[in-house]
Specification:
Tyrosyl-Transfer RNA Synthetase, three-stranded parallel β-sheet, two-stranded parallel sheet, binds tryptophanyl-5'AMP, tryptophan--tRNA ligase, protein biosynthesis
Length: about 350
């Protein structure tokens, strides 16, 4: 069976971008593949963070995965830091990753510019090597993510190929290994729509956890009133009717796309339904669709978080299964790189 892995950082609240760009696709694809979903707590410390919040956010993020429909009878759900091999492999990979590759990363440039010199730790630069480790440890075939992770996935592929070339094949065989490739080279799965959900207050910037204004995003756990209020105040335009794909109407395209994904309709159906609508009517429509879609998720979230033993059990079992796969890969890498066996 082909394998698929993905994860979300436990920073801030999970929003519609995370859901439509990634988590919703995990659910749609989890029956087709063997899946592992992790909460990347080690990535969450790459910018200044609140120690009092980290553990809670990690659990809450796990609860959101389950509430959104991740099926623990099929998928392994676990916390990144609970499987030590992630950090260990990262060190090995970082020896084969030129600094120049990391300096080119758009997210590193953006985040370090915003954070200011004092707050830019080495880990912010090496962040994508840890991400490569998350993926390569499991010999993953596919990684469902939003558009903003595409460059990190390309880097992961390059690191995998470089390690395969440097240490795989006949060289590895001479060391007593099986020879051949060390890592499978993974492919990103980026959805045709929803891969880049934009801010509610500016159709040209992406919806993000770190944007200062909460009005710019719909969080999965927002109550009905908050959703209605955010949609009421979101940015619109004064063109007649509503349409997809008009470059002069980024907000319109974004809201129609959200409506389409949330309602489960096709683009054509939505285009037709909304072509003669005014904003007032459409805002009521999208608000109702959002509330209807998110309500059951919120109910399940409450159920899951009310029983902490259940969630702990899921995470322990997930970490156990993940560790087995991860250890096997890690042992191969140590062997191929010529380390003395323990
Ligand atoms: P993170 O936590 O920033 O985002 C989690 C997922 O949500 C997607 N996403 C979006 N999709 C559409 N529109 C948006 N506005 C939007 N904002 C976020 C992201 O693309 C992502 O899929 N580095 C990763 C986490 C990670 C990871 C991994 C992912 C660490 N290791 C291994 C996959 C595999 C991150 O910070 O995602």
């Amino acid at each position: 069976r082909k394998r698929m892995v993905s994860g979300v950082q436990p920073t801030g609240s999970i929003h519609l971008g995370n859901y439509l760009g990634a988590i919703k696709n995990w659910i749609d694809l989890q029956n087709a593949y063997e899946t592992l979903f992790f909460i990347v707590d080690l990535h969450a410390i790459t910018l200044p963070y609140e120690t009092q919040q980290l553990a809670k956010s990690t659990r809450d993020t796990a609860a959101i995965y389950l509430a959104c429909g991740v099926d623990t009878t099929k998928a392994s759900v676990f916390v990144q830091s609970h499987v030590r091999a992630h950090v260990e492999l990262m060190w090995l990979l970082s020896s084969a990753t030129p600094i120049g590759w990391l300096n080119k990363m758009i997210q590193f440039k953006e985040k370090s510019r915003k954070a200011g010199d004092e707050n830019v730790g080495v880990a912010l630069l090496t962040y994508p090597v840890l991400m490569a480790s998350d993926i390569l440890l499991y010999q993953s075939d596919f990684v469902p993510v939003g558009e903003d992770q595409k460059q990190h996935l390309e880097l992961t592929r390059e690191i995998a190929q470089r390690v395969n070339n440097l240490y795989g094949g006949r060289k590895w065989k001479k060391l007593g290994g099986r020879g051949g490739t060390i890592f499978k080279v993974p492919e990103p799965l980026i959805p045709p729509s929803g891969a880049r959900i934009m801010s509610l207050t500016d159709g040209l910037s992406k919806m993000s956890k770190s944007a200062p204004s909460d009005q710019s995003r719909i969080n999965l756990l927002d109550p009905k009133d908050a959703i209605a209020n955010k949609i009421k105040r979101c940015k619109t335009d004064s063109f007649p009717g509503l349409e997809f794909d008009n470059p002069e109407r980024p907000e319109c395209n974004n809201l129609l796309s959200i409506y389409q994904l949330i309602s489960g309709k096709t683009k054509e159906e939505v285009a037709q339904e909304c072509q003669d609508m005014n904003w007032g009517v459409f805002k009521n429509l999208i608000t109702d669709a959002l509330v209807d879609h998110l309500h059951p998720i919120q109910v399940r979230y409450e159920e899951i978080t009310s029983d902490s033993r259940y969630l702990d059990g899921v995470l322990a079992e997930g970490a156990g299964k993940a560790s087995e796969i991860a250890e096997a890969t890690l042992n191969n890498v140590y062997q191929a790189m010529g380390f003395l066996r323990r």
